[in-house]
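Researcher: Sequence recovery benchmark, item below. Answer with residues only.
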């Protein structure tokens, strides 16, 4: 059984809350089966955890069996996400780990982070509003930031700014590694070279040459038209 921290949900429960937080931004209702596939666990384990979270008032299940976070659950998920994001900023910009590796390490450390250490990390990395991939820390921040459009919908011949590597994209370690290797991080301006429905791919010219990816992963990346306001993108000041 996963260890339960008196300050909040157990490590296993945190994973479910974060998964629901991410999935809730999609167009489809979240079912127990979809949540199980997302987390790589059995349907039975998912049903048991959802029942516990519901008993704690963190999730609710409607008559159609769709699972969603309650207001309390969303607040709890935002707290977990903030800790995870701050750790990623620390691991990437201060310690120097890669995107995929920092995500794994942050997942291991987030449950043990005290409020004091969390505040110290926030001071160190400059109080970002988003994670290093551009995803907002909480619902209030999300509501006042631009939505962006999927990279897969960008028109050939146009210039766009990489805005947000969505949480769904973050779950693909290979995609994260590729984007980092190509320098395709939030705030990077790129030119759309080609979009091919027949080849199911999009090509763009970025800071490290031409990059090509499938339309499915491109749909998980949000962009803004032209050269976006630099103030939208957090930078950690060197020390």
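Model:
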């Amino acid at each position: 059984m996963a260890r339960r921290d008196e300050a909040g949900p157990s490590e296993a429960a945190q994973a479910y809350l974060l998964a629901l937080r991410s999935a809730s931004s999609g167009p489809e209702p979240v079912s127990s089966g979809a949540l199980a596939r997302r987390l790589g666990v059995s349907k039975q384990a998912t049903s048991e955890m959802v029942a516990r979270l519901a008993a704690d008032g963190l999730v609710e299940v409607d008559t159609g069996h769709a699972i969603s976070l309650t207001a309390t659950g969303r607040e709890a998920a935002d707290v977990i996400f903030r800790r995870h994001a701050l750790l990623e900023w620390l691991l990437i910009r201060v310690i120097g780990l890669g995107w995929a590796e920092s995500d794994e390490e942050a997942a291991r450390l987030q449950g043990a982070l005290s409020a004091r250490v969390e505040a110290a990390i926030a001071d160190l990395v400059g109080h970002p509003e988003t994670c290093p991939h551009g995803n907002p820390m909480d619902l209030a921040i999300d509501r006042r930031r631009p939505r962006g459009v999927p990279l897969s919908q960008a028109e050939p011949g146009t210039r766009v700014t990489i805005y947000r590597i969505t949480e769904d994209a973050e779950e693909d370690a290979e995609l994260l590694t590729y984007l980092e290797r190509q320098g395709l991080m939030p705030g990077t301006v790129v030119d759309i070279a080609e979009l091919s429905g027949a080849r199911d791919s999009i090509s763009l010219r970025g800071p490290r040459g031409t990059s090509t990816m499938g339309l499915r992963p491109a749909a998980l990346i949000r962009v803004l038209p032209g050269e976006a306001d630099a103030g939208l993108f957090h930078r950690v000041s060197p020390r």
